[in-house]
Design goal:
CATH topology of the largest domain: PH-domain like
Number of domains: 2
CATH architecture of the largest domain: Roll
Helix content: 25-40%
Shape: elongated
Number of helices: 5
Strand content: 35-45%
CATH superfamily of the largest domain: Pleckstrin-homology domain (PH domain)/Phosphotyrosine-binding domain (PTB)
Structural class: alpha+beta
CATH class of the largest domain: Mainly Beta
Order of helices and strands: HEEHEHHEEEEEEEEEEEEEEH
Distance between the termini: 75 Å
Number of strands: 17
Length: 255
């Protein structure tokens, strides 16, 4: 009986000659063929899509299939997530919701407030590594225990390698960025920043008063748990995310 009802719905709503087939095992109805297709059913579902009777019932009255409803739900959620991410960033940048993972070991001046405090961040620097010289060429046995080596000797050379020199807290206020480790520290005035390179797990900051950039890595070890209203998110920390925060605070600096 339900099969006949669905057939009538389609003939009345679409005014199309159609052939439906019911699969008793799957409990689904398959649309086998039709004539004209002014409602783009073939584009939406293909030529032999099988749907539950309830889905065909909704479609007959202008509704959507389960798959279409799920796709729209995902699109709504993605749009909502994008809006929430902008809300979270604005809240952090404005100082309303400081991103503090532990107490920040920094002295704040008058009017200064914490934007974020991230522990376990690596400070990296380029260090020269010396390569030991080696002989080249061929060796010949002159007498027992004595060899003559021909060719040249490559003198020791040096090359720069990026190495972690300390681990500590990366702190940002509305006026500066500070790295504080057990052996090294660095402070950058936000107004002096001229460029930021962002990577998945690292951040490279260039400043006017520094000959070398400040290189920070290990960002991907941290994850942030943030929420907007009743929607909770786990946000992986990346250099790209931090760059957006830093640039947002810089834009708020008085000119």
């Amino acid at each position: 009986m339900r099969f006949l009802q669905l057939t009538i719905y389609f003939l009345y709503y679409f005014n199309l000659p159609i052939i439906l087939r019911y699969n008793f095992f799957q409990k689904k109805i398959k649309l086998i063929s039709w004539g004209e297709d002014p409602y783009n059913l073939s584009q939406r579902f293909g030529k032999s899509i099988a749907l539950f009777p309830e889905e065909w019932h909704r479609i007959a009255y202008g509704g959507l299939s389960d798959a279409e409803l799920e796709e729209r739900r995902k699109i709504r959620e993605e749009k909502q997530r994008e809006l929430d991410m902008e809300t979270i960033k604005h809240s952090i940048i404005s100082g309303e919701t400081p991103l503090e993972l532990g107490e920040a070991p920094v002295v704040l001046k008058k009017g200064e407030k914490i934007i974020f405090n991230l522990p376990g961040i690596e400070l990296q620097e380029y260090r020269k590594e010396r390569i030991r010289g080696t002989y080249g060429g061929v060796s010949f046995r002159v007498m027992k225990g004595v060899y003559l080596r021909t060719g040249s000797f490559g003198a020791g050379e040096s090359k720069e390698e990026l190495k972690a020199v300390d681990i500590g807290n990366l702190i940002m206020t509305n006026k500066k960025i500070v790295f504080m480790g057990s052996r090294k520290s660095a402070s950058i005035n936000l107004a002096k920043i001229i460029g930021i390179e962002a990577y998945e797990n690292a951040l490279v900051i260039h400043a006017e008063n520094r000959k070398k950039p400040v290189i920070l890595s290990g960002l991907d070890k941290l994850k942030l748990e943030m929420s907007v209203e009743d929607r909770a998110y786990e946000i992986p920390l990346t250099g790209i995310f931090l760059k957006e925060l830093i640039e947002g605070v810089i834009r708020e600096l008085p000119s």
